[in-house]
């Protein structure tokens, strides 16, 4: 019986840790490798945290900071062992009221569900998922994937290599992706996109879209609002669906714009070394220095204005 008791106790999960917090308190989580889930819910004043003791993590609270710290020691040895066996990655699950949270991990999977306070994530390799948050969100990721949906607070994301997906964002943000694939879908606000290489797609967007691009291929559909920015080499293929003010500059990048039918758009286009292709009602003036097209398309005026300047790229408007 004594042996049976020891056997059962070895497989008994420890009770969740609990800590009382105030709205101004914050969570600071630091470790090498972990799966972290934070389920924030309105009301209450107690955080429930599962998985700490099983994984050798500790919790302390001092001056309003709830510190969750992973095991210390030889980080390379510990991390190497964890990577060889993904089942050894500890699961830290936090539930309770929404308070600011800051996470620092070398490797991991992070899920943030709801929450009206600041969330900051610093991750070297892994995946970050955020759903239904109203508070500001800031993510820094060296390599991996970021997925954000149903976000109403400001978003600032910086990914060096990977995939960045944002759906149904209502608010402002800056999306930086050095290399990989970006998708912004069904969103509105003031959003800046900064890309170096890869591909990007923007769909069903309204508001202000700012583009700073080197050589990524960027496409957009069902766009309205103000679209502005610069692309060095990466082509821009944009389909405009509503009232819009377009102001673009490129080095050698090709610009392809599809405007609404009978838009009455006002065009002001210039390229030094590329070509200009526009509907026949707007003429193209060619000189030995540049090609220009200025005029208005058929339809009701005042809804769409297009200003494009390029050094070497061609401009196509239809």
Task: Please give a quick description of this structure.
Helix content is 7%, strand content 62%.
Q: What is the ordering of alpha helices and beta strands? A: HEEEHEEHEEEEEEEEEEEEEEE
Low-confidence stretches: 1-12
State mean pLDDT (0 to 100 scale): 91
* Tally of DSSP β-strands: 20
The best one-word shape is elongated
Helicity range: under 10%
Give the number of helices: 3
Radius of gyration: 25 Å
The class by helix and strand makeup works out as mainly beta
Describe the main β-sheet briefly. Answer: 20 strands, mixed
Strand content: over 45%
Separation, N- and C-terminal Cα atoms: 83 Å
Question: Any overview of this molecule?
Answer:
It is built from 3 helices and 20 strands. It has helices at 2-10, 52-55, 75-84, and strands at 17-20, 26-40, 46-50, 58-62, 65-69, 91-96, 101-113, 119-131, 137-151, 155-169, 173-213, 217-231, 236-250, 255-258, 266-271, 276-277, 284-286, 291-296, 304-310, 315-317. The chain starts with a helix and ends with a strand. Mean pLDDT is 91; it is low at 1-12.
